[in-house]
Write a structure and sequence with these properties.
The complex is a heterodimer of chains A (203) and B (282). Chain A is mostly helical. Chain A is built from 11 helices and no strands. In chain A, helix 2 runs antiparallel to helix 3, helix 6 packs antiparallel against helix 7 and helix 8 crosses helix 9. In chain A, 31% of the residues are buried. In chain B, a hairpin with a 7-residue loop joins strand 1 and strand 2. Chain B has 282 residues and is mainly alpha-helical. Chains A and B meet through helix 2, helix 3, helix 8, helix 9 and helix 10 of A and helix 6, helix 7, helix 9, helix 10 and helix 11 of B.
Chain lengths: 203, 282
């Protein structure tokens, strides 16, 4: 761990993602071993430090915003009151999930699947599936968990976490002309733009 | 592969479009230099994307050249070439060979076999150079066939095979960027597979071929079915895009984002529109 990764990249902690990427590029060029044939070893050390600093910043920022996907930590921490209700199998599945062994967790869940398709089962299955990149199943099972127990905050949180990524992507898409591809909707979109033009012009 | 990974040209700045062309022409040139006219025929937008992505991540020197090309002999074309265009060319050869052999096995398409034989010696050379990549594609072809015979209904499972294969091709070097590149390749691969299946679902239903969408296509009204497909495709691309945003890419980032956020949907919209028109005719 680097104590202050921002200092290594020479940027303020308030820098935008783009500024951080640019700072990384400038430094990685400067310290690239191929560009420092006279003192390659020191350069390589510095080069690695810059890479680490960059990755550390990315990881830190991800925690703050939306972070999900396989290869990353997915947790199924239950509230204290819920802990005791889990069956032995369910506890084992939860422990595997929290240790990052998603496939093992799924093996247990699938074995018990036929008898116990409770909201909890779907919840754990959703988390474990997300962990190994089965995003379709993860989404489906999160929805089922919420449908079975609509007032469970944890299930709701998981579902909205999964939905967040899609809405973020849609938003980005509109700035790259995703909507102009859809010629069917195009007309509708243009009309909406006209309607909005009077009240919410952004310039 | 399937040519879904394209730019949304309308929204691309002219300077960026010129760069995009230069990469594309560079890949074409590399294929011709290394593998002749038969190799050149394997040129694809998918591999062009990979080339721009890896160039953005590693920023090696680009060799700028201008050549006349056989298709457009009146004009000099600007091209970008380097070791990454060679890598993308090699991966294109591997993919095309397996693709052609698969068509031969499935449909007894003699033309495919002939074309595959035409690039066989190049394929052998690439396979020797990149045994891991070749193995990944070979495994993929085999496992996909077994999923099809089993009539696998889990969409994640069949699509994940293409994902795993593509994630291997995205890794040019084993270094700290490997996990994010793999994630990108994995979800883009799933997207490609499901997009391709969406395009074929009508034909596959009629010919009783395997298709992971068939179960929904048959049961659900068009609108609901299309909404389902789109939601799942968006899940794939949003995971792919998140992995992309984590990489320190500045060079040509706008071209890559244009492809990731919009371009990849070009075919989807075209397929949807075609289908709606056909239905309206009925």
């Amino acid at each position: 761990m680097i104590a202050d990764p921002y200092r290594i990249l020479g940027v303020a902690s308030s820098a935008t993602d783009d500024e951080i990427k640019k700072a990384y590029r400038a430094l990685s060029k400067k310290y690239h071993p191929d560009a420092n044939l006279d003192h390659q070893e020191q350069a390589e050390e510095k080069f690695k430090e810059v890479q680490e600093a960059y990755q550390q910043i990315v990881a830190m920022r991800e925690k703050g915003t939306s972070s999900f996907g396989f290869g990353q930590q997915w947790n199924a921490d239950r509230t204290k009151s819920g802990y005791g209700e889990d069956s032995v199998d369910m506890q084992a599945a939860r422990d595997y999930i929290n240790a990052g062994y998603y496939q093992e967790a799924l093996n247990i869940l699938n074995r018990m699947g036929a008898v116990d398709q409770s909201a909890r089962w779907y919840y754990y299955s959703a988390v474990a599936n997300a962990g190994i990149g089965n995003n379709t199943t993860a989404f489906d099972h999160a929805q089922r968990a919420v449908a079975l127990e609509p007032y469970n905050l944890e299930y709701q949180l998981l579902l909205s976490k999964l939905q967040q990524g899609s809405s973020w992507y849609r938003e980005k898409g509109s700035s790259y002309g995703r909507s102009s591809l859809n010629t069917n909707l195009c007309l509708e979109f243009c009309c909406m733009n006209l309607l909005c033009g009077c009240c919410c012009r952004s310039f | 592969m399937f040519g879904y990974i394209v730019v949304n040209q309308q929204e691309l700045q002219i300077s960026d479009y010129k760069r995009y062309r230069a990469y594309y022409c560079g890949l074409c040139r590399t294929l011709k230099e290394r593998y002749g006219i038969r190799g050149q025929a394997t040129l694809s937008y998918d591999m062009t994307f990979l080339m721009i992505l890896l160039n953005g991540l590693y920023e090696p020197n680009l060799r700028e050249e201008s050549h006349i090309c056989a298709l457009h002999p009146m004009k000099l074309h600007q091209m970008y070439l380097n070791s990454i265009s060679e890598y993308a060319a090699d991966m294109g050869i591997l993919l095309s060979y397996y693709n052609l052999m698969d068509d031969w096995k499935d449909d007894k398409n003699r033309k495919s076999r002939m074309l595959a034989r035409g690039i066989k010696k190049y394929f052998n050379a690439v396979q020797e150079h990149y045994p891991e990549k070749a193995k990944a594609i070979e495994t993929y072809v085999k496992e996909l066939a077994s999923c099809e015979t089993k009539n696998e209904e889990n969409v994640d499972l069949t699509a994940g095979l293409t994902g795993t294969m593509l994630s291997e091709l995205f890794v040019w070097k084993k270094d700290i960027w490997e996990p994010d590149l793999r994630r990108m390749g994995f979800f883009m691969g799933k997207f490609i597979y499901l997009m391709d299946a969406f395009e074929d679902v009508k034909d596959d239903t009629m010919t009783e071929n395997y298709n992971p969408w068939k179960q929904f296509y048959q049961k659900e009204p068009t609108e609901i079915f299309e909404k389902r497909v789109e939601d799942i495709l968006i899940l794939m691309m949003s995971d792919c895009a998140q992995a992309f945003e984590k990489l320190p890419i500045v060079q040509d980032a706008e071209i890559l984002r244009n492809i990731i956020y919009a371009g990849v949907w070009s075919k989807y919209e075209a397929v949807k529109m075609k289908r709606h028109k056909e239905e309206a005719k009925k």
